[in-house]
Design a protein that fits this description.
Strand content of chain B: 25-35%
Radius of gyration of chain B: 24 Å
Order of helices and strands of chain A: HHHHHHHHHHH
Largest sheet of chain A: none
Order of helices and strands of chain B: EEEHEEHHHEHEHEEHEHEEHEH
Number of domains of chain B: 2
Distance between the termini of chain A: 26 Å
Number of helices of chain B: 10
Shape of chain A: globular
Number of strands of chain A: 0
Shape of chain B: elongated
Number of helices of chain A: 11
Distance between the termini of chain B: 33 Å
Largest interface: A-B, 27 and 35 residues
Structural class of chain A: mainly alpha
Number of domains of chain A: 1
Strand content of chain A: under 5%
Strand order of the largest sheet of chain B: 5-6-7-3-8-9
Oligomer: heterodimer
Radius of gyration of chain A: 19 Å
CATH topology of the largest domain in chain B: Rossmann fold
């Protein structure tokens, strides 16, 4: 299995996508820090305080989840797009092991991109707040929870992405489908059900609660467990699809 | 010993029967052309043999086991399926290294096989910029990674220019000479006739014949073509002598299994005017066409 995970990571490392995504996330992270600090205390934004660090560091959380999802989807559906899946299955005819290796590899990739990006936002925010005379500390418990939630969400999104890619196989359809789901379908479902309290159980609400819990949402722990359950469900269904279907 | 055995292999895609009860066996070290017109079911058969497509019925085994049950399959079987199965953004060497990692082969194999197919100078280039011929070489290099004793190639000459086809022919001959079992599919007999020892011909998903190339050549027959204004008079004369003859246009007769001498004597005896007469041997391609189109008509 280690061999297959290494092969998946090698696939990721030998194309440009992951470098582009990581660089974009790092730049985006720095921009959010700059925007949040310069806008703090203006236009109705809360002023900077000793508790501002977690919010600043974790600001790119949603984008990071999206990036991990993107990597997972392209990592799986891309194999069908470029027909490389044929070679992959010729080398490893046990398809379940291939998909399992991808699930692990893209969970790790999501985590790696998140850790790198949060390191960058931390490196930008921490000295800036210090320079403004605020006594912020990296040992802040809330900071740990924000970083942990964001990193976990990104890892799980990598997993979900592989599951979706296995299920849909067409990478454009998979990407569009995810966007439409998150932006349109979940909202519609909420309206149709006429029960906002059920909304917190939907996948993207759970992902949001994991990175940035708020009123009426699940706790971080509950959201983490729920989103992990979604992730494994997608992965399981996707794997079954890939194992059974013909590769023509 | 049969290293490839296909038994009652059948594949249905909805209403379409792509492969229909196909059975044949190939011995170790044999070099076989897997022939049939487009849509005969060659690709589906090979994909079932390689565990990529699940048969509706029947079995396809390599060394007595289904491909999916082989341990370290790349060490036993090298396959070339479609020419474009590479990520365009990955370099040739990276592509091969990913494969060696997945298959547990030494990474040094990547550069060795690149040298074998003459791609060493393109090793660091992205595959997206490769010509079709280079892609096909890279596909062959991939198939050779595990130094397999068996090679399965699906229409490897498709889209290659004459130089590429010439190279491919020599390369396949070279691999066969090393004692490897080679199964190469094609819809053009001439493409593989110089390389293979035997042929398996299929049409409409069914076996038409499995024979050596020599036996196939024996099936080719001589045709005597006669141009005459009295074709309708000559025809019954020849048939009366037990010669299989047919009208070939208004003023032409085609007679099978006879000689120009026999036809000439028969025509002179009946004072028939001949404008032109020549004998031609139907070639392997005609035999192939005859075999495969005949099969098509019966279904």
């Amino acid at each position: 299995m280690t061999r297959l995970i290494n092969a998946e990571l090698a696939k990721l490392r030998t194309t440009r996508l992951v470098y582009g995504v990581t660089a974009t996330m790092a730049v985006f992270g720095v921009l959010t820090v700059v925007a949040n600090i310069t806008e703090a205390g203006r236009h109705g934004q809360a002023p900077l305080s000793a508790t501002s660090l977690p919010g600043l560091v974790g600001a790119p959380a949603t984008m990071l989840s999206g990036a991990a999802l993107l990597l997972g989807i392209l990592g799986m559906a891309g194999e069908f797009r470029h027909h490389t899946i044929t070679q992959t299955f010729l080398a490893t005819p046990d398809r379940g092991r291939v998909v399992t290796a991808k699930l692990v590899a893209y969970a790790l990739s999501g985590i790696a991109v998140a850790v790198l990006t949060l390191t960058v936002t931390m490196a930008a925010a921490l000295p800036w707040l210090h320079a403004k005379g605020l006594a912020v500390s990296v040992l802040d418990g809330e900071l740990g929870r924000a970083v942990g939630g964001t990193v976990l969400a990104a890892g799980l999104c990598g997993l979900v992405g592989v599951g979706i890619g296995a299920l849909v196989r067409n990478q454009v359809a998979a990407l569009v489908g995810v966007l439409v789901w998150a932006v349109v379908v979940e909202g519609l479902l909420l309206n149709l059900l006429n029960a906002p309290s059920l909304g917190k159980w939907l996948p993207s609400a759970a992902a949001a609660a994991l990175t940035n819990p708020g009123d009426g949402q699940l706790s971080r722990l509950a959201a983490g467990l729920l989103f992990a359950a979604y992730g494994f469900a997608f992965a399981l269904v996707g794997t079954r699809f890939v194992v059974r279907r013909d590769v023509t | 010993m049969a290293v490839i055995s296909i038994e009652g292999l059948t594949k249905r895609f909805g209403e379409v029967v792509a492969v229909d009860g196909l059975s044949f066996e190939l011995d170790q070290g044999s070099v076989t052309g897997f022939l049939g017109p487009n849509g005969a079911g060659k690709t589906t058969t090979l994909r079932m043999l390689l565990g990529l497509v699940t048969p509706t019925a029947g079995t396809a085994r390599i060394n007595g086991r289904p491909y999916r049950e082989l341990t370290a399959p790349l060490r036993h079987v090298g396959a070339v399926l479609e020419s474009s199965s590479f990520h365009p953004g990955r370099t040739a060497r990276s592509h091969l290294r990913v494969m060696t990692t997945a298959a547990g082969l030494p990474s040094t194999r990547a550069d060795e096989v690149l040298a074998q197919v003459g791609l060493e100078r393109a090793a660091g280039r992205r595959v997206g910029g490769f010509s079709l011929g280079m892609r096909q070489r890279l596909a062959l290099a991939t198939a050779l990674l595990g130094d397999p004793e068996m090679l399965i190639l699906d229409e490897p000459a498709n889209g290659l220019d004459p130089e590429g086809i010439h190279w491919l022919r020599g390369f396949l001959r070279h691999l066969a000479d090393q004692g490897r079992t080679v199964l190469v599919s094609s819809h053009v007999l001439a493409e593989v006739a110089q390389t293979v020892d035997q042929v398996v011909i299929i049409a409409n998903g069914r076996l038409v014949t499995q024979s050596t190339l020599a036996a196939l050549s024996d099936r080719s027959r001589q045709v005597v073509r006669v141009r005459t204004p009295q074709a309708r008079v000559l025809l019954p004369l020849l048939r009366a002598q037990g010669i299989q003859a047919d009208l070939d246009g208004h003023h032409q007769v085609a007679a099978l299994g006879t000689t120009t001498e026999t036809v000439g004597v028969a025509a002179a005896a009946a004072s028939i005017v001949l404008y032109e007469m020549h004998a031609e041997r139907s070639n392997l391609e005609d035999v192939f066409l005859e075999l495969t189109t005949g099969q098509g008509a019966t279904s």
